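To: structure desk
From: M.T.
Subject: fold request, one chain
Message: Could you run this one when you get a chance? Sequence is below, nothing fancy, just the single chain.
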Amino acid sequence: MEKLAVFGGKPVFEKKIGYGHQYIDDADIQAVVDVLKSDFLTCGPKINEAEAKLCEITGAKHAVLISNGTAALHAACFAAGIGPGDEVITTPITFAASANCALYCGGKPVFADINPETYNIAPDSIEKCITERTKAVVAVDFTGQAVEVQRIREICDKHNLIFIEDAAHSLGTRFNGKPIGSLADMTEFSFHPVKTCTAGEGGAITTNDEELYKKLLLFRTHGITRVNEWMDKPSEGGWYYQQVDLGYNYRITDMQAALLSSQLDKLGHFARRRKELVKRYDEAFREIPEIIVQREIPESDTVRHLYIIQLDLEKLTCSRKEVYDALQAEGIGVNVHYIPVYFFPYYQNLGYKMGSCPNAESLYERIISIPLFYSMTDEDQEKVIVAVKKVIDYYRR
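Reply: Done. Structure tokens follow.
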């Protein structure tokens, strides 16, 4: 670490800037306060209001708000009928929940490799992973860029698979002009604070399928219903309900739903600013041969959640860790998204082996996530660019 001293002087950021940060305004605060003063803190009208807005934004017929993005993926696997012996294909370059959701239902995650230029799951690799036990594909819109939806849809239709799109990063993104959320059999969203819109915590699943919608609703509320048509005998009165399946308490509160609803009203502003920041980063880093910029497919009109630089380590005299540490020393809270899921001890103990997805493993060794969020100023971004150039200049061969 003695090399860091040669940078000299003060860090670029005296107060550390994170790779992501929520934006909360007075309208958001008032929306939550109004709920706190209302009759319903949970199971109230704000749930339906936010679900209706999600349907309007995504073009989906149905939206089910749920406690968080992981719960949404669990619900989607349940609705897809995943059970013991079933295989679910996903990418290793993702948060663990994209794979864990199969395990929650007794299924087995199968990891397909990525496209080394877009970083998204490669359709050809999906096809190579399909067996007679494959039941679903969880395709992750990594960084916010849409997966190759049309190709994956064709593969799923050909092999009679359920297509689950993990859109935790991609709220507001469009594929061939159509919003993400209406293209897969089910689409999962996350509203964690670093995402484009936040509910504090929270998630959602959108679908156009009535039967899947019914299963998702039941799963969210213990498998319990008051809907006559879903019971095995007529209701005995206004108090009556039945548990018709085994579900969970995965409800979201009205406070969270109100915050999300207010945030969704600003999605257009959030999207435009993120695109501005991404364009400026792309222009700056394309001039630096030691940095590789993520390629986007022309079909994806992307609202980026993460901005990732890939280091061309053959042109540098250092490791990724040294660049990471140097940027941290400059006051930039950089991160790495993601460690391949099957690298984790839990998955190694299940029998997963290193080397199964060489493109994903190579990418992991070279990537760093740098700050990207709505309230990031032009001055903040310029400082990040200056810091990155400063570090790269020092370690250039």
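Reply (cont.): Confidence is low (pLDDT under 50) at residues 1-6. Let me know if you need anything else for the meeting.
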